[in-house]
Amino acid sequence: MLSRRLFDIQVDDEFYTIPASVSSLSFDSPPVKDNAILSVMTPNSKRNLFLDDDDDSGLGMEDHFTSSLPKFSKRQRVDDDNSRCSKRPKVCSDIKAVVTKLEENDDFIADGSRLHTLPTVTGKHADLKSITSQTLTDVLNGDYDDVISDYKIIDCRYPYEFEGGHIRGAENMYLHETILTLLRQPTKDKQIIVFHCEFSSERGPKMLRFLRSKDRDLNKENYPSLNFPEIYLLDGGYKSFFNEQPNRCDPVSYRPMLHSDHSEDLRHFRVKSNSWTFEEKRRFARKVMQFRTVIQLVITNSALINL
């Protein structure tokens, strides 16, 4: 009879099961011939019983049992171990191909499925795809309807700025939790999102990166799939768009963030928008501490076992 003990450790309502690598053997029953062992054990149960090299029980199980198995059984077990990484070769090869494709050509959208639909320019942020005000106007005019199924314009300015003038059809999202609502909405093939703020220098890029990061987290089991693989930044922001296309704005006006009549609003919305960042840092720090606690427990248990 073979038994193994496990340590269950609870950290902030999460359980971590840690193998203690302590086993016990019982030889109360009389010896059984090799052929009898093979006749009652399926290949799966053999692999569970005879642990791999990296699952050493600490009691020399290989010395007690594996020497009694015929050579062809040992070879079969080694072959099974070596083939584990290739059980899903198509998925592995697909991911590798996509990563290579994205590294060699940044014209592909983030999931590697196709090239970017809109022409891009070199903006202030080299890691982001930027489009001009004219390109966005072409989208609004329907010039890309044959290749785009849907589009969203996300205005990351504060509400008083948005109310003082915005691109017609844009949505005001200046909070992180509001950006997350995008990931709860139904997705469509060939849809795009355009982010911007006043100059597209800080708030717009930050929210764009935040959405991409959370989108990756949401789809980590299906990499490189994304809900929104094609995202753009409006070069020059609302200021540039208003200067070029004022008739596309509603109302036809431009209220800057540092407007003298809205200093109190500025302080209020800055605090409100930064509160998420503070909480995110606290959550991250807590997760780091949890991870360190688990690692320390593993090291402590391993040291006790080796005594």
From TrEMBL:
What the entry lists under CDD domains is as follows: Cdc25
GO CC, alphabetical: cytoplasm; nucleus
Q: Which keywords accompany this UniProt record?
A: Cell cycle, Cell division, Hydrolase, Mitosis, Protein phosphatase
Q: GO:BP terms for this protein?
A: cell division; developmental process; G2/M transition of mitotic cell cycle; positive regulation of G2/M transition of mitotic cell cycle; positive regulation of G2/MI transition of meiotic cell cycle; regulation of mitotic cell cycle, embryonic
Q: Which GO terms describe its molecular function?
A: protein tyrosine phosphatase activity
What SMART domains has UniProt attached to this entry?
A: RHOD
Could you tell me the EC number(s) of this protein?
3.1.3.48
What's a Pfam family this protein contains? Answer: Rhodanese
Q: Which Gene3D superfamilies match?
A: Rhodanese-like domain (3.40.250.10)
Q: If you read the UniProt record, what top EC class would you report for this enzyme, in one word?
A: hydrolase
* Domain (Rhodanese): residue spans on this chain: 147-250
Q: What PROSITE patterns does the record point to?
A: RHODANESE_3
Catalysed reactions listed for this entry: O-phospho-L-tyrosyl-[protein] + H2O = L-tyrosyl-[protein] + phosphate
Function of this protein?
A: Tyrosine protein phosphatase which functions as a dosage-dependent inducer of mitotic progression.
Family assignment from sequence similarity: Belongs to the MPI phosphatase family.
In its UniProt entry, what is this protein called? M-phase inducer phosphatase
